Amino acid sequence: MTQSLSIFLSIHVFIGVTGIIASYATLIWLFKRNIPIRLLKISSLTAFIAYIATWLTGGYYYVLYYGGSVKPIIKSGPTPWAHSIIMEVKEHIFLFLPVLAFVILLVIWLKGNSLEKNKPLRNALALVVSITLLIAVLMALGGIVISGAVR
Amino acid sequence: MNNKKNKIISSFAIAGVVAIVFIVFATIFGELYSPFKDWLKVIFNHHWIGKGIISIVIFYVFGFLGYFSVKDSEDVMITILKIIFWIALVGVLAITGFYLYEYFLAH
Hints:
Helix content of chain A: over 70%
Helix content of chain B: over 70%
Largest sheet of chain A: none
Largest interface: A-B, 37 and 37 residues
Number of helices of chain B: 4
Oligomer: heterodimer
Distance between the termini of chain B: 55 Å
Strand content of chain B: under 5%
Number of helices of chain A: 5
Shape of chain A: elongated
Number of strands of chain A: 0
Radius of gyration of chain A: 17 Å
């Protein structure tokens, strides 16, 4: 792997974890007695930018390097399922994240002030944030499994 | 202005539902019908890039156009937010179930 690809992969992991932390913070802050709207705006924007950035960096590595160099090693090794199941699921379900993060961003930036009084809206938003966080965590765990399969 | 906000959120949440349904469809259909996956490769250089670009185009086009047709109701907006949660959850299970089936049963 070239140094630039190695850097892209490291950035991908770092930004992905940042997205997870931002989504987690969004979920936690939604349930505070006094909802910190300003912090929610920052965390939701951070999560959206992080998922876009991790998409671009991960995509760059995946398209240019993974298919030609990593995938054959995994498929011929003792854990071919790491690609056939984990990577296939990861690369496709990931595409949900920028969409979900943008919807969360819109709700918080446009309706943030009514979240404290409007419990049905807050609870519906919490569901969307929860599935976003769950997907993001699954992506990270999938990445760990795939990295382990190459070694 | 508040109604405008409801409409913006509702239209993009509906667009999100459509985009997620497309991703699930394109993923499973692409594996079952290789000419579709090949077409994505030819047009976008890689099938995954194709799915990503088309889903984002669907999301923003439906999001902007949906604004003019969606109802300006807070109840509708909340319902659509719940729907996008369920669609995302079903999408995760569908894609995961499909690749489990492909690996353990189909091949």
